[in-house]
Batch of 3 targets.
Target 1
Amino acid sequence: MELADIIGKQNADQIQTSGAIRFHIAGDTGRASGDSTDQDDVAEAMTSDYQAGHDATNPAFFFHLGDVIYGARKSALYRDEFYRPYMKYPGKILAIPGNHDGETFTGTDPTPLQAFLDNFCAAQATVPKIASDVGIFRETMTQPGVYWLLQAPFVNIIGLYSNIAEGPGNLIGAKGDKKQLTWLQATLTDLKKAKDVGDSRALVIATHHPVFSEGGHSGSAEMLQQIDQACTAAGIAPHALLAGHTHTYQRYTRTIAKPIAAQVICVDVGDGGHAASPVKAATGQPVGDAKFVKSLRGYGYVLVTVDKNRMVLEMFETTNGEKTSFDTATIDLATYRVT
């Protein structure tokens, strides 16, 4: 996808001219026990980042990191657990599916991912009846699939599907299906070719399951190895790895030696509204080849800002309905140094 496909060429050109792109990230928003308060608080706080008349500097979209809907009757639940909470959110919403989006239930959800595909990978953008019936006019998205590449001013984002299992994540599908891995390898190779001729955009890779986690759910070492192997073969390194799933906010700084010597920001932003979990790690604790930096048991989202030189991820906490800046990480796009 190109950003112009999502928000229109004029808006995408304005972002390019402005010198930076901004977008929201959060995951795990499906309600716990029917209570929408925490999800609504996050949605309201993200909406407050928009200012009338500032189209070029407003967030370009919300990137949902998966687990949009938990439990059975997913198609029906989209009205109250997706369209209602984001009724006033002005931006488009992209997504990768989480394990709960792919789960099946006999009689109500027999086909994996069907409701997700209907709402995020529709053949054309239309307002679904479950939304229009209650006066909500958000259109379905037309993503090419459950994994994709978004090329935007200043950033390339790869969204991947890390499968149905509660954990750990894996990029290989049922019966050993390696189509996604093959696609990832080819996509990274193309991005490296573009980089070699002057494309200096940041590279972000997102999965629902985290590669590192010390709370909520465990990390996915095998999936990290799959991503590493594809990046090494292509000769390109991401600036950030994004994930949800943990029902927490966690940030790590990863140090790698190949394909280049680099630091990588790894963040779990699974605190979009569903059942906050504790984190057991201590500041500075090593986790694999990464170092644990900071965490939050609560709710919130991250605002990502990318220009030609750096990417900044600022986490806003919304626990108890108050929006406050909780954490900030910056990576230099040329040197791969995190501060």
Note: The first helix runs from residue 3 to 7.
Target 2
Amino acid sequence: MKRFFRSVLHALNGIKFHIKTGKNFQLQGMAALLVIGLGIMVHLNTFEWLVVLLFIGGVLALETFNSALEALSDEVTPEIRPGIRKAKDLAAAAVLLFSLTAFVGGLIIFIPKIVEYFD
């Protein structure tokens, strides 16, 4: 049990570090707060909340993984090497692909709700 709590503490330290230093993570976190506020305003149902929260969590988790890979790569070598560049680009592509999916999914969920809200 002690090991589990230590692992959770390390994870929380990682989140705290990312909030302080990760510019993309900060922007995505602010966008997440805005989406949550909009969701409260337009009264999302339980399923819609589940989808929105999975999108938010997925984007933030992928961004964290991307940052971890970049930090590890920079620690291994400060040189620009083709294999490391490819790994960094692929990790960034994963964030972009999921972010675009989340954006489109968000539009599908929110546009009808916003239209209904203003009717």
Note: The CA atoms of residues 87 and 113 lie 39 Å apart.
Target 3
Amino acid sequence: MKLMIIILKDENLLEQVTSILVEAGFYDASVLDGENIETLADTTMPLLASFKNLFSDDFSYNRTIVCPAADPQMVKDALNIFEKEQIDFSNPQTGTLFTLPCTVFTGENREDL
């Protein structure tokens, strides 16, 4: 079992990314709203607002997609489709994709531990 996490910075890709995830079999994925740390620092620590240009001019929100994968092949399939569709997570403007091992899972699709 793996847990794939996507932090999608380019929200214009959200529909395409979710479509690819469904195509790869990620039916239990969840999409969460998020915001970049720079945005929080700007609003909660006014002193840092004067340093805004150090981070970038683009203070934006993002979407975090959490995808449990019972079969590691699902992750490989999604990565292949992302590459085919030219969604490049090595580009920092697109976002970040990573997986974590999931050692305990309980729920509808529970597998033996």
Note: The domain at 2-101 is CATH 3.30.70.120 (Alpha-Beta Plaits).
